[in-house]
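Friendly challenge for the regulars: who can give me the structure tokens for this chain first? No prize, just bragging rights.
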Amino acid sequence: MTTLFKAMVIDDEPAARRLMKNLLSEHRDIIEVIAEAGTGEEAIQKATTLKPDLIFLDIQMPDLTGFEVIERLDQKPIIIFTTAYEQYAIRAFETFSIDYLLKPIREERLQQCVDKLKQFSRMNNSIDMVGLRDIMRQFQAPQKATALPIRTGDRIILLRFENISYMEAHDKYVYVFTVDGQKHLTDQSLTSLIEKLPPQFYRIQKSHIINRERIREMHRHFNSRYLFIMDDKVGTRLTSGRTYHDTIRTDFGL
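First reply, four minutes later:
Bragging rights claimed.
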């Protein structure tokens, strides 16, 4: 008989929680999502009350790390870490989770995780708390990045965030434009970049990310679009996508 696991989804990004719940809905025969949480403190409160068998846990959250959440739980559930940072995921997996999921999470990878969960015995679900404390010390909030690394042959150029005006996807390539008019090619997609960049970088359409701190002017444009004039050497003019209209209006208080 298949065990039904009562699960919690813990992630500070609402979109990530929605995606995880949608993916898990295909596995209702083994996993029932009973709650979600957007912060470490909320996760601890709900997990203490609901006592889930299983938690899908984001490692990096604004208030607490996933490791700190685990440490403060009296009853330790089965842990499956979710993270965009592979170095965290591998270390966490090797230490005390039965599996990990790298963002963006793919259906086939989740299926592998569920298959592994079906074979997992709750009797083996013990966490080495000494090891947990050691790993927490290693993963205390890292220094915030201040530059974007760009590989050029054997060299790595560090573009300071304040010097970046915008990024543009064209065909299969993504280019980074600096305020002094230089153009750099990166091997990363816009989707992966927006997940790693600080909050001042903002996606205005599927092909453009802009630096909000480098906006000189904004204008209403036709067809529910906005025109952004950047504070760079050439006064770059970029137009938002129609599907981004409501988000831009809300985020900029328009």
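The domain at 5-138 is CATH 3.40.50.2300 (Rossmann fold). Helices lie at 14-24, 40-50, 66-71, 86-95, 107-118, 129-138, 190-196, 245-251. Your move, everyone else.
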